[in-house]
């Protein structure tokens, strides 16, 4: 884009279609909660490409097997949030299959394996639906439409899982999946500012089945399909602006474009971003 085109874009009022939160909610329900609309290919495609940007209970994931076994361990076992004595066995079992069956060479290979191992009604499958680009696309669009004149660029995308038992037996469990979005604004390829905001999915599970609470830990992946598990429910989605991570005033000083006064300082830029990324909460 030429400098004249950039300047015209900043000086011209552009009318774009708006999007309200009810539309965001409908889209998220379709992508993350409705059993009839599971996009299996997205799950199979995005997990391998995102896994190095994922943490589970503050531990960085090293590969797909590490991530999946961590979620299986922390979600399907009750009252034990540490990596139990079978973790290495489960990891080795899955990692051997990933390599021998070439499960990551095609998204359908990984998904077929997960379908056969977990069954689609399993809570792990339900949670994996929020760990991809499609699950957050509507909320990203919602904020983009609030800012039609200044497009931002993706800079980084981190996903932090936090799985908490609220009692020692694992009866009441809360799962947070936090998408940390880092974006930037550039002028002629030079970064003016970088900022961070987040999208957080909050899930809840109450287990009242005594057999499920007292059953033995999973020691082999083949055990999973023979067990029934209490459903997990999406309770709410929250979005918040977090911070400006970097602001380079010299970029603006060296530009001949007439950028809005909102970007003349870090403080004014912060206020402008906070106005765009106002906190929201959607209940399900």
What features would you describe in this structure?
The protein is 39% helix and 25% strand. The protein has 11 helices and 7 strands. It has a 7-stranded mixed β-sheet. The chain is α+β, with helices and mostly antiparallel strands.
Write the layout of secondary structure elements.
Elements: H1 3-11, H2 21-32, H3 40-50, E1 54-56, E2 59-60, H4 64-76, H5 87-100, H6 107-118, H7 123-128, H8 133-144, E3 153-165, E4 172-187, E5 190-206, H9 210-214, E6 233-247, H10 249-253, H11 266-276, E7 280-283
Parallel strand pairs: 1-3
Antiparallel strand pairs: 1-2, 3-4, 4-5, 5-6, 6-7
Helix pairs in contact: 2-8, 3-6, 4-5
Tags for this model:
seven-stranded mixed sheet; elongated; 284 residues; disordered N terminus; single chain; 11 helices; 25% strand
Strand order of the largest sheet: 2-1-3-4-5-6-7
Number of strands: 7
Helix content percent band: 25-40%
Helix count, DSSP H or I runs of 4 or more residues:
11
Radius of gyration: 22 Å
| SSE order, one letter for each helix or strand | HHHEEHHHHHEEEHEHHE
Strand content: 15-25%
Instruction: Give average pLDDT, whole number.
Output: 88
Shape: elongated
From the helix content, strand content and strand pairing, which structural class follows? alpha+beta
Major sheet: 7 strands, mixed
- The assembly state of the depicted protein chains is single chain
Low-confidence regions: 1-6, 8-14
Distance between the ends: 42 Å
């Amino acid at each position: 884009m030429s400098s004249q085109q950039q300047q015209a874009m900043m000086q011209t009022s552009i009318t774009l279609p708006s999007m309200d939160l009810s539309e965001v909610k409908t889209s998220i329900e379709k992508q993350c909660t409705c059993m009839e609309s599971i996009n299996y290919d997205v799950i199979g495609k995005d997990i391998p490409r995102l896994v190095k940007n994922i943490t589970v209970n503050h531990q960085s994931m090293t590969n797909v097997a590490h991530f999946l076994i961590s979620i299986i361990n922390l979600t399907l076992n009750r009252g034990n949030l540490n990596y139990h004595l079978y973790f290495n066995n489960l990891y080795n079992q899955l990692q051997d299959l990933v390599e021998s069956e070439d499960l990551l060479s095609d998204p359908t290979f990984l998904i077929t394996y997960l379908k056969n191992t977990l069954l689609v009604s399993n809570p792990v499958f339900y949670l994996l639906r929020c760990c991809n680009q499609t699950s957050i696309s509507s909320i990203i669009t919602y904020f983009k439409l609030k800012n039609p004149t200044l497009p931002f660029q993706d800079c980084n995308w981190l996903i932090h899982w936090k799985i908490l038992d609220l009692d020692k037996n694992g009866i009441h469990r809360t799962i947070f999946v936090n998408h940390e979005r880092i974006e930037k604004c550039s002028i002629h390829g030079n970064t003016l500012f970088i900022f961070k905001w987040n999208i957080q999915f909050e899930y809840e599970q109450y287990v009242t089945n005594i057999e499920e609470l007292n059953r033995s830990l999973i020691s082999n992946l083949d055990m999973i399909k023979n067990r029934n598990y209490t459903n997990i429910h999406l309770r709410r989605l929250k979005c918040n602006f977090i911070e400006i991570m970097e602001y380079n005033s010299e970029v603006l000083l060296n530009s001949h474009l007439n950028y809005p006064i909102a970007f003349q300082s870090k403080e004014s830029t912060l206020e402008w971003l906070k106005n765009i990324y106002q906190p929201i909460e959607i209940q399900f």
